[in-house]
Amino acid sequence: MQTIKTKTITLTQDYINDVEQTVKPHWGDLGWVTYKRTYARWLPDKQRTENWAETVKRVVEGNINLDPRLSGPEVDADVVADLTVEAEQLFKLIYGLAATPSGRNLWISGTDYQKRNGDALNNCWFIAMRPQAYGDSHIQPSYLDPAQKAVSMPYAFLFDQLMKGGGVGFSVVQANVQQMPKVDRSINLTILIDKASDSYDASLKLGATDKTAWLAQHDKNQVAYYELPDTREGWVLANAEMMDLHFDATNVNDNDDLVLDISQIRPKGARIKGFGGTASGPMPLVEMLFDINALLNTRLNAKLTSVDCTDMANMIGKTVVAGNVRRSAELALGSGEDNDFITMKQDQEKLMHHRWASNNSVAVDTRFSDYTAIADAIAHNGEPGIVNLELSKNYGRLIDGLQADIDGDVEGTNPCGEISLANGEPCNLFEVFPYVASQQGWDLKDAFGLATRYAKRVTFSPYDWEVSRNVIQKNRRIGISMSGIQDWILGTFGNRVVKGFKTVQDPATGMTVNEPIYDPAAVKTVDGLYHAVIDADKAYSDALDCAPSLKHTTVKPSGTVSKLAGVSEGMHFHYADYLIQRIRFQDNDPLLPALKACGYHMEPDVYTKNTVCVEFPVKAANAESAEFASAGTVSIAEQFATQAFLQTYWSDNAVSCTVTFQPKEAKQIAGLMAQYRHTIKSTSLLPYVGAGFKQAPKEPIAASEYEKRHAEISGDVAQVFAAQNDNHDQKDIELVDQSDCAGGACPIK
């Protein structure tokens, strides 16, 4: 074996130039604009943001160099050669938009931030809300032994991951909440701020105290005193200490008074290095700390409830969102029989204050068959969603049958519902667009193989939390998704996957149900692609001398990423055959003059000041086909059946789906949930809304209106933008209503 000194895999400019000349990216109608304002990073040395080739180069190199075989002082020369070829194939695959890694990877992979924060490559996480030990983690309260269980730990985990831009699912099922101790102490919380801080006046209005005046009258050695550094960790630790002081087991110095000094926290609008964007100032943190402390004080000598535990997580989520830089995605999972949890959003005051910050779902099993009450709640407000943990623990793909306890540590799911997760575990996503990949001449098995190896390497990131490192090393879970599924199936097989229904009797309930009939060619093809993923994982795992991934495939909702390639989102049907898609921009966004020059209609946003609403006419793939169906025309029964098809033949994790229903279909919800209780691992439902309000994000239009709008557009936005700005744009532009999971089940606000 010939070895060479450790080498970083890089893509040559000659290869990149060749791909740029031979491969045309499959930009959707909103694709390049969405990319430019969402994933193109600022390049300080060039005083502009990246172009697409630069982004893909960064992303691929950031990933390929995670291969653990490159970490030694010397590496096999053949490994370097093979990985270099693989990096070139990945670049070609992603550059053409035949596939992409997750939005988190598009933004973070290959950056210094990735090297400092290994967690940053993963979109979403799951944590159980019960006392846990911090262990050997990057966040560790100084007053605790690493092995000591603390109420604050899952909230610190959630806060930390949300601050890094990830979403978090969390479990408040009774088995977890009952482990919470009673609240032993009422804590007096004082928040100090120095007059020199630009946030002084705003913080005082929220209840903060002048630092100089307080120190003149108090001895800080007589209280629990913490001066927050201007870091993410400082925010997390401040909340952790405040929570832990309420419980005797973690109040090690017998303190009833906590004083937090926020003077060092940067003011609103200051630059955030690394992650990007601008700061919110300390004000949202001040409000959150007072709110959580007040909640805990009201529970003195009582145990916390599932609603309490959810409220505190929602208050954290609200704080993270406040800066309008990160999108806080939370999913709260409660027990199916917990009526207080199921109805908690009926309190309108608390809903508006903080309970909007999570989507709420309930955990069920196959024995749960009466969905009447849940269906009624869904029909009225679109919640709760359903998560069947029993199926996730004991099944991969449904066609592979019962595999008892194959995933026995599963306790919940990520916010979008496509990955069943153990405590502390993240989702790890990559999606292939088979509709685009086939058009570009890719062998789909090769494309899915490259995706598998990409996701596998992410599991070797230097994760920040011990609970995560342990479960990732054990499971190596990946989530290889396909998106644009409706486009691909209709374009490839000439029909939708559900060809009809046959009447059968449910053996458990005796009810007559309509069982779906699937296209056999689609079944065979999807099954073959699944096994291509399995084979690729086994081969790569053998090469890396690590365990094969516990589970491999999924269907993510997709959102911003699917807009890049202009394909249907995940398994979802297009919203309409022809529509106006509206995107909101800050009024100083440098993309606006280019869009205006190209003829896109724009007008002031009616809901938000200093915001412009731009209208993009969009035609769905296969819109002219007689077999085409949209979210506004497809039946609720066919959507359930399509999700069941993918859970049976493709996804060994889960399938994210937001089933849309017409008002007249609401009465079918309970029966369909009962029918598919042995098949679907998670689902959520929302009523279909066409153009029900002014400047709706999506508005169905007639084909003639689309043709009229499309004819008004001329020129290439990318080229016009480059000419107007000499390829020099601005940094720190605020993004409005963009999220990786928009349009799916992921509750990013």
Q: What profile does the largest beta sheet have?
A: 7 strands, mixed
> Strand percentage, roughly?
15-25%
Number of strands: 29
Using only CA atoms, what is the Rg?
26 Å
> Would you identify the regions where 5 or more consecutive residues have pLDDT less than 50?
736-749
Please explain how this structure is put together.
By secondary structure, the chain is an alpha/beta fold. It has 28 helices and 29 strands. A seven-stranded mixed sheet has the order 6-9-14-15-16-28-27. The chain has a four-stranded mixed sheet with strand order 5-19-20-23. It has a four-stranded parallel sheet with strand order 11-10-13-12. Helix 7 packs parallel to helix 13. The relative contact order is 0.12. Residues 736-749 have low confidence and may be disordered.
Give the secondary structure arrangement, pairings included:
Layout: E1 3-5, H1 13-22, H2 31-38, E2 42-43, E3 48-49, H3 52-64, E4 74-76, H4 77-95, E5 99-101, H5 103-108, H6 112-116, E6 124-128, E7 132-133, E8 149-150, H7 152-163, E9 167-171, H8 174-177, E10 188-193, H9 200-205, E11 209-210, H10 211-217, E12 224-227, H11 232-244, E13 257-261, H12 283-298, H13 306-321, E14 330-335, H14 339-342, H15 348-353, E15 359-364, H16 372-381, E16 385-388, H17 389-394, E17 410-413, E18 420-422, E19 429-432, H18 434-439, H19 444-458, H20 466-475, E20 479-482, H21 485-493, E21 498-505, E22 512-518, H22 520-544, E23 553-554, H23 560-565, E24 578-586, H24 591-597, E25 601-604, E26 611-619, H25 636-649, E27 658-661, H26 669-675, E28 682-687, E29 698-700, H27 703-711, H28 717-725
Parallel strand pairs: 6-9, 9-14, 10-11, 10-13, 12-13, 14-15, 15-16, 19-20, 20-23, 27-28
Antiparallel strand pairs: 1-4, 2-3, 5-19, 7-8, 16-28, 17-18, 21-22, 24-26, 24-29, 25-26
Helix pairs in contact: 1-4, 3-4, 7-11, 7-13, 11-12, 12-13, 19-22, 24-28
